[in-house]
Automatic annotation (TrEMBL):
GO MF entry, a single one: methyltransferase activity
Species this protein is from: Candidatus Fusicatenibacter intestinigallinarum
Pfam families found in the cross-reference section: CMAS, DUF7884
Entry superkingdom: Bacteria
Domain DUF7884: 26-87
PANTHER family: CYCLOPROPANE-FATTY-ACYL-PHOSPHOLIPID SYNTHASE
Protein's name in the database: Cyclopropane-fatty-acyl-phospholipid synthase family protein
Active-site residues, as the UniProt record annotates them: C355
InterPro entries, A to Z: CFA/CMAS, CMAS, DUF7884, SAM-dependent_MTases_sf
Keywords carried by this UniProt record: Lipid metabolism, Methyltransferase, S-adenosyl-L-methionine, Transferase
Family membership: Belongs to the CFA/CMAS family.
UniProt keyword rRNA processing, yes or no: no
CDD domains for this protein: AdoMet_MTases
Amino acid sequence: MNSFLANYLGELIPVAFRLKTEEGTQLIGKGEPEFTVTLKKDISKKDLMTSTSLALGEAYMRRDLELDRDLYEVLDLFLGQMSKFHTDTSALKKLIQTSRSKKNQSQEVRSHYDIGNDFYEKWLDETMSYSCGYFKEDTDTLYQAQVNKVDHILAKLHLEKGMSLLDIGCGWGYLLKRAAKQYGVHGVGITLSEEQYHKFKEDIEKEGMSDLLEVRLMDYRDLEKSGLSFDRVVSVGMLEHVGRGNYGLFLKCVDSVLKPGGLFLLHYISALEEHPGDAWIKKYIFPGGMIPSLREIIQLLPEYRFYTLDVESLRRHYNRTLLCWRENYHKCMDEVAREKGEEFARMWDLYLAACAATFHNGVIDLHQILMSKGVNNDLPMTRVV
């Protein structure tokens, strides 16, 4: 038995479990084992010390590591211990410290969102919302939670008929379509994903909304010179692609197109503390992705005269959203494996399960920050519930 591996995993996983290898089975920890890890191939000390998440994640993708219990349930038991994971930032410098250039970030965004609309349609809900839902009732379906989320955001923005709304990172456009239908606003969505752009553009024409909505293939950095101006700006799940060091630039670009007194709602995955990011996620899921802490965004807002009006955490809502996505994904996982290979299929299952567990353990959070450009005394004095 690889004693280093047994001791390493024992320190990482705070519950008892069995470790099964070709050499036999060993009980790690004290008490009744919660699950069994079967290793068909040894994981080297070097790999674990270079990146715990890469070593374990790749072993799972290749089926070198198997579990006798649901993946999410196992991850939920120990991902709260991620601070104990090893990451050799020197050896992984190119992976961890990614470029903030427009060209590279465009390629990184497209590598994830342009996998194909057909792929996302298999397991997202009918709104094609790829961000945290809002479960107002225990009985809410994923679809209802996504509608709730959009309605929650639109209510916070205090929209009125004829207003203009910009959505930075508009995805497949559900938020803007609902804003136009419910409030009669004029909306512009920008995205770097060609798949999302073409689908949203097609929907606008199909639903006869060309007089109210427009979608552009556009980088947020081009807003400053666009000549555009808006009463309201929203950005949902896009800040994670901006990169540490560019947050001020992002806010400057928002400021350049938001009218005085206008409202900006920023919805993004956040962290308690600043962190360079997870190597496995960066290599396989979100190249160049970076999760800002709440405080590093909040502290920048005064530089652009953004007044913070409301901050809300939806952490547990994202845990439930991810579990709903994973339930849907399992229904089509065999089909995904046939189309894209078993490693890809297991990779995405690991991604959904791991994210759900990290939200549940508070490793990451989801915050909505509502702010005004300068003082706005015309808004209701009570918050949106």
